[in-house]
Amino acid sequence: MFDLKLIRENPADVRARLASKNVEFDGEALLQLDRQHREIMARVEGLRSRQNAANDEISQLLKQKKDAKENIAAMKTISAQIGRLEPELKELKSRIDQHLMGIPNLPHPSVPVGDTTKNKVVRAWGEAKKCSFKPKTHIELAESLDIVDFKRAAKITGSNFIVYKNAGARMERALLNFMLDVHTQDNKYKEIFPPFLVNRASMTGTGQLPKMEEDMYKLKDEDLFLIPTAEVPVTNLHRDEILSEEELPIYYAAYSACFRREAGSYGKDTKGLMRVHQFDKVELVKFVKPQHSYDELEQLVNDAEGILQKLGLPYRVVMLASGDLSFAAAKCYDLEAYAAGLDQWLEVSSCSNFEDFQARRSNIRFSAKGGTGKGGKKTMLVHTLNGSGVALARTMIAILENYQTEEGDVTIPSVLRPYMGGMDRIEK
Predict the structure, then answer these.
(1) How many distinct structural domains can be found in the chain?
(2) Torsion of CA 262, 263, 264, 265, to 10 degrees
(3) Same domain, 242 and 124
(4) pTM greater than 0.90 (yes/no)
(5) What is the pLDDT of residues 360-373, one digit of tens each?
(6) What residues contact residue 358 under an 8 Å CB cut-off, 6+ apart?
């Protein structure tokens, strides 16, 4: 949820920064609701103070065995006034929250301002492969090697679903196990295996709802959604919790299948494995102290890069411009792997810092030292981050197209061979 205090204190700055995300924001209607809410709240608090004082007076009169009828009648009048104001207060709060839920996160000052043309390549690793022969696309390779069945997937489910088979299925499994092992053993993430269905509160907490509901798969008879990413269940592990300062930072790695309707992408990059409605991904999620979150973002990107380097895939790191950021992100880097057959750079990971945006919606806090509360502590919102570590099926595209041979076979990256029983090549 957006921080209302920011709008109160500097509406012009909020308006300008949201404009860089291509969001028109006036704010006056919201501020008017806020003024009404605070005015009524002040009246209610004043009445409650009078109510408490009247209660004390009545108690004293009754102890002294004096007549308290007038005081009791006055207290009932006050209670009635509070009773009339509370529904109005609740209605105003609901309307304010509805407004705030629809406002995206503000971009960080370091983010380039503009549309996708302002995205900035910050570094690259490896060189785009130049084949001495005409490279095949992953579609041609998958069909000739009999490792993906596009036609039967369309028959049993529909378009943009896939069936991996034979060495393709084994490589998919190998990739997932390899990535989880790297992140849990080398990068010290704790492994989570989450449910693939979540409730509305979870989807709202991470920012998918209400804005992107049409892109999600929803159950007909229950208010449950198939997850678009493991970010949703893993972030919500700590919803409505107060963590201890000593627990932070918390790093989680989770495999999940991911489900996206991609309702707004009809006809866009829909061939083969490019844009499928169900795909596998290893997700990395962090809960950190606010002062460390941007250092943690850089490390998160490095962790995802490590996977691509171990796989020997050329890639580049792109800082997204403000107009290309997601609803919830304050800053995001995309990792794009090169695919020789398509001669394209394919997004295989997005690493984002949400600052306290998701934590505010999900009520995830930590108890920090130096406050005036119990034990000299105060509660603060954590910062949440997440990134793909990395996503399939586009990583599969990059492997097939970059490791193909002139004969039409595919050499298996050396780091995957132990997970594939020593197999070093997929042959016709």
Answers:
(1) 2
(2) 50
(3) yes
(4) yes
(5) 999 999 999 866 55
(6) 205, 206, 207, 235, 328, 364, 384
